[in-house]
C-alpha cells in the first residue's frame, strides 16, 4: 500500500484496530518495550544469561557493570545470531502455524583494562563500550478460524455517536481529504467509522445527516476469518561502561545506556461469509504501525569475592525513559451482492497518521546472584531478578488518556521474578556449557501472557589470544492474540530458537 500524503494529527487517542498489538499506547506496548530476550554473546546465552556474579565477559557488562573489571586484559568481541521464531495458533478449534527466521548482529563490544601502580587499593580501572540487541521483533503470524463475531460489529461500534454528515463526502472532497480531516478533528474512531461507511459495511439507522446510530450489513451466522501478521525491527542497548577493582575482592561499576526502538508491524484480516442475511460477503482490512524511539537508563552493580571460589553480585537497573514516535495507516476493501450483482469497493485513504511523541517509563529491575568457580575446571552460577512491571508509566502524566491507561497498567500488570542457572565445564581448550531460565508472567492474568521457560547449550574453543563460542537457546511461552479488540481470542504457542556465534580477540 502506497501512502502519498503525510499529515500531523495533533491529538493523542487510542487507536482501536483489529489486532491488539496495533492499539497504540496501551498495556501491550508497555510490555513490548519492557521485556527482553537472552541474547548477547554465545557464552552468555549458553549459561542462560546467569552471568551477573561472574563478569569477565563482554555482554555480561550490559547486565552487571562491575563485570568489566574482572577482565585481566583488553578484549574485543563480535556476535552473530540466528533467530527462528514459530507461532502455533488455535482459533475457534482451527490450528495454524507460521514462523520467521532472521540473521542479526546480537552483540559487539570492547573492554580496556588500566592497571594502577604503587600501593593503592584501587588496583584496576576498566572502560567498556558495548552493544546488546535486547529484543528482536522479526515475526510472522497466521491465524484462521470460524466465528460468529464479525468485523461488522467492530465498525458499527466505532461509528456509534458519530454524525452521519461527518462520514459523507461533500462536493469536491476526496477520500483522503475527509479521512485526514476526521483524524485531525474527531480521532481514529471516526476514521474507522468513515472506512466502514464508505466500504458499505455499516449503514445509518435513519438517513438523516444528524443520525448517530448505525447497523451492520454483515448479518448473523458464521464468518471465516484469517489474520496475517508481520513485524520487523529491534531494540538495542548501547552502553558506556566504567568500573573498578578495590583491593582483591571488590568490584564496582556504572553503565550509562542509550536505547533505540525500531518497530514496524502490519496486519491484514480477511473475513468471508455465505450467510443468506448478509449482503456483504468479503472484508479485507489492513493496518500498519511504525514506531521509532530513543531512551536513556543507567545501571549500578557490584561483585564481591568471598574467596577464590565464591562470588556474590547485586545490580540495580534504573527505569528506561523513552520518547516514542508513532505512525499508522489503513486500507479497506469489500465485496457485496445486491440484486444479484456483485460489486467491489476499495477505500484507500493514502494517508499516514503521524502522532505527537509520547513518553514511556519502563520498569526498574533489581537482581542478585551467586557463583562458585571450581578453579580452572568450571563454574556454577545463579541469578534472581525482580522487575516491577506495574511501575510502567506513559506520559505526559497530566494527559487524561494516559492517566486512565496508567491506572489500567497498575490493575493489569504486576511484579515479575526471573531465575537463571548456568554452568560450564572446561577440558583443555574446550568448554561445555548449559543453562536454564524461568521468567514469571508480568500480567496478573497469566492466561493472556504466560510464564516464559527456556534452556540453553553451548561450547567454546579458547587458545589464549582468541576464542570462538557457539550456543543454542530455546524459549517457550503461551500467549493470547486478539483478532478484534478484546474479543475473538486466539491461543498462541510461541517458540524461539536462538543460535549464536561469537569471536573474541584478546589484545
Attribute tags:
single chain; 507 residues; 2 domains; 14-stranded antiparallel barrel; 6 helices; 23 strands; 56% strand; elongated; disordered N terminus
Task: Break the fold down into its secondary structure elements and pairings.
Layout: E1 5-9, H1 27-32, H2 42-46, E2 75-91, E3 94-115, E4 122-136, E5 139-147, H3 151-159, H4 175-185, H5 188-198, E6 202-204, E7 214-216, E8 223-246, E9 250-272, E10 280-305, E11 310-317, E12 321-338, E13 341-347, E14 351-355, E15 358-361, E16 365-373, E17 378-388, E18 393-395, H6 400-412, E19 415-427, E20 430-439, E21 452-462, E22 466-484, E23 487-506
Protein architecture, described:
By secondary structure, the chain is mainly β. It has helices at 27-32, 42-46, 151-159, 175-185, 188-198, 400-412, and strands at residues 5-9, 75-91, 94-115, 122-136, 139-147, 202-204, 214-216, 223-246, 250-272, 280-305, 310-317, 321-338, 341-347, 351-355, 358-361, 365-373, 378-388, 393-395, 415-427, 430-439, 452-462, 466-484, 487-506. Helices cover 11% and strands 56% of the residues. A 14-stranded antiparallel beta barrel has the order 2-3-4-8-9-10-11-16-17-19-20-21-22-23. It has a two-stranded antiparallel ribbon with strand order 6-7. Helix 3 crosses helix 5 (188-198) and helix 4 runs antiparallel to helix 5 (188-198).
Number of structural domains: 2
* CATH topology call of the largest domain: Porin
Uncertain stretches of 5 or more adjacent residues: 1-23
Output mean pLDDT. 89
**Radius of gyration over C-alpha positions, nearest whole angstrom:** 26 Å
User: What global shape is seen?
Assistant: elongated
Strand segment tally: 23
SS content category: mainly beta
**Strand residue content:** over 45%
Major beta sheet summary: 14 strands, antiparallel, barrel
At the first level of CATH, the class of the largest domain is Mainly Beta
Spatially, the strands of the biggest sheet line up as 2-3-4-8-9-10-11-16-17-19-20-21-22-23
Amino acid at each position: 500500500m502506497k501512502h502519498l500524503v503525510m499529515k500531523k494529527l495533533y491529538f493523542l487517542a487510542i487507536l482501536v484496530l483489529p489486532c491488539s498489538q496495533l492499539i497504540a499506547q496501551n498495556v501491550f506496548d508497555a510490555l513490548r518495550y519492557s521485556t527482553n530476550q537472552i541474547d548477547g554473546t554465545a557464552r552468555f546465552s549458553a549459561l542462560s544469561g546467569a552471568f551477573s556474579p561472574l563478569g569477565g565477559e563482554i555482554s555480561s557488562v550490559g547486565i552487571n557493570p562491575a563485570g568489566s573489571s574482572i577482565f585481566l586484559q583488553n578484549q574485543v568481541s563480535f556476535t552473530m545470531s540466528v533467530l527462528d521464531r514459530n507461532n502455533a495458533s488455535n482459533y475457534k478449534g482451527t490450528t495454524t502455524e507460521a514462523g520467521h527466521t532472521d540473521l542479526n548482529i546480537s552483540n559487539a563490544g570492547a573492554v580496556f583494562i588500566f592497571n594502577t601502580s604503587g600501593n593503592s587499593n584501587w588496583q584496576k580501572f576498566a572502560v567498556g563500550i558495548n552493544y546488546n540487541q535486547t529484543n528482536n521483533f522479526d515475526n510472522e503470524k497466521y491465524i484462521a478460524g470460524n466465528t460468529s463475531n464479525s468485523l461488522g460489529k467492530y465498525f458499527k461500534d466505532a461509528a456509534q455517536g458519530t454524525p452521519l454528515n461527518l462520514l459523507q463526502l461533500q462536493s469536491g472532497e476526496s477520500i483522503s481529504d475527509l479521512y485526514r480531516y476526521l483524524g485531525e478533528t474527531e480521532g481514529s474512531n471516526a476514521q474507522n467509522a468513515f472506512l466502514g461507511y464508505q466500504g458499505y459495511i455499516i449503514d445509518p439507522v435513519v438517513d438523516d445527516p444528524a443520525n448517530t446510530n448505525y447497523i451492520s450489513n454483515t448479518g448473523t451466522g458464521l464468518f471465516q476469518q484469517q489474520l496475517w501478521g508481520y513485524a520487523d525491527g529491534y531494540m538495542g542497548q548501547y552502553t558506556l561502561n566504567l568500573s573498578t577493582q578495590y583491593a582483591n575482592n571488590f568490584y564496582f561499576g556504572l553503565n550509562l545506556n542509550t536505547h533505540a526502538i525500531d518497530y514496524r508491524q502490519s496486519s491484514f484480516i480477511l473475513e468471508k461469509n455465505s450467510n443468506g442475511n448478509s449482503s456483504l460477503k468479503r472484508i479485507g482490512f489492513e493496518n500498519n504501525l511504525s514506531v521509532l524511539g530513543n531512551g536513556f537508563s543507567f545501571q549500578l552493580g557490584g561483585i564481591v569475592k568471598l574467596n577464590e571460589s565464591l562470588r556474590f553480585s547485586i545490580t540495580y537497573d534504573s527505569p528506561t525513559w523513552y520518547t516514542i514516535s508513532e505512525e499508522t495507516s489503513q486500507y479497506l476493501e469489500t465485496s457485496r451482492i445486491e440484486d444479484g450483482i456483485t460489486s467491489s469497493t476499495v477505500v484507500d485513504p493514502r494517508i499516514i497518521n503521524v502522532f505527537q511523541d509520547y513518553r514511556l517509563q519502563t520498569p526498574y529491575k533489581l537482581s542478585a546472584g551467586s557463583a562458585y568457580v571450581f578453579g580452572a575446571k568450571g563454574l556454577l552460577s545463579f541469578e534472581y531478578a525482580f522487575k516491577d512491571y506495574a511501575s510502567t508509566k506513559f506520559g505526559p502524566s497530566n494527559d487524561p488518556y494516559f492517566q486512565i491507561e496508567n491506572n489500567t497498567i497498575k490493575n493489569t500488570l504486576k511484579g515479575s521474578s526471573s531465575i537463571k542457572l548456568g554452568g560450564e565445564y572446561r577440558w583443555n581448550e574446550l568448554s561445555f556449557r548449559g543453562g536454564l531460565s524461568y521468567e514469571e508472567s508480568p500480567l496478573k492474568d497469566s492466561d493472556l501472557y504466560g510464564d516464559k521457560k527456556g534452556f540453553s547449550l553451548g561450547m567454546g574453543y579458547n587458545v589464549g589470544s582468541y576464542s570462538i563460542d557457539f550456543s543454542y537457546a530455546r524459549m517457550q511461552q503461551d500467549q493470547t492474540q486478539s483478532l478484534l479488540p478484546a474479543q475473538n481470542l486466539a491461543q498462541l504457542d510461541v517458540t524461539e530458537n536462538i543460535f549464536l556465534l561469537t569471536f573474541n580477540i584478546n589484545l
